[in-house]
Amino acid sequence: MIEDAAAWNRLAALLPEPEALGFRDCWSIGEQEAGLGVLVSGILAHHALISETVRAEISVLAEAWGEREALTPRILQCPGNGAPAELKLIEHDDGTDHEPVDGSGPELAGLFLVPWVGCTRCGQVLMRAHSRESRGDLSYLAHHYVITSPDRATVLRVFPADSVSVGFSALLGYCAEPT
Predict the structure, then answer these.
(1) Residue 111, phi-psi category: left (phi > 0), alpha (psi -120 to 50), beta (remainder)
(2) For the chain, what is the mean pLDDT?
């Protein structure tokens, strides 16, 4: 939670006052879901420029608080700053779901991997693992998060459903590790 609070305060700096205060207040009163809406609305209203890494971070926070699906169209509309970034938010990658392949264990059996955040340095991809619902759609909530090889052919790491922030940090940290 401390990491989320630090990220929350850092993201507040993207907004002018009083939106920044309102955004921080949402954290204080336990209304993170509403706060994410305030953040994205403020970025759009004030044409605040964000990096692709910040865009991905907002998407991860939205996923953690159950708001990713609702906020993604607006997150994608936030103006970018054009600077090179470590990460890129991948949405509607190629329109297909990817079944687990080499390196995936029994926890991923029957699940479909959906590309989500790509590392521009090493090419690895953070994906969401969803089940297929009886009506044919993918489950609303991810069952796991996985990091795949750049060609998406090999699952390198698997994270439980409640560990989206850990998976995101692992993606960020992989390239920072000495080889």
Answers:
(1) beta
(2) 88
Residue 74's φ and ψ, nearest 5 degrees, are -75, -35
Q: What is the pLDDT of residues 8-45, one digit of tens each?
A: 889 999 999 989 999 999 999 999 999 999 999 999 99
Give dist(CA 122, CA 50) in Å, integer.
22
pLDDT digits (tens, 9 = 90+) for 53-89: 999 999 999 999 999 999 999 999 999 999 999 999 9
Residue 113, H or E segment: strand 112-119
- Please give the structure tokens belonging to residue 4: 């989320």
Residue in this structure with the two tokens 């509607």, named with its chain if needed: 92
Q: How many CB atoms lie within 10 A of CB 80?
A: 13
Which residues have C-beta within 8 Å of that of residue 114, sequence separation ≥ 6? 93, 97, 98, 127, 128, 129, 130, 138
Q: Specify whether the CB–CB gap between 172 and 148 falls below 8 A.
A: no
Strand-pairing partners, residue 89, are 117
| CA-wise closest residue to 27 among 5, 42, 6, 7 | 5
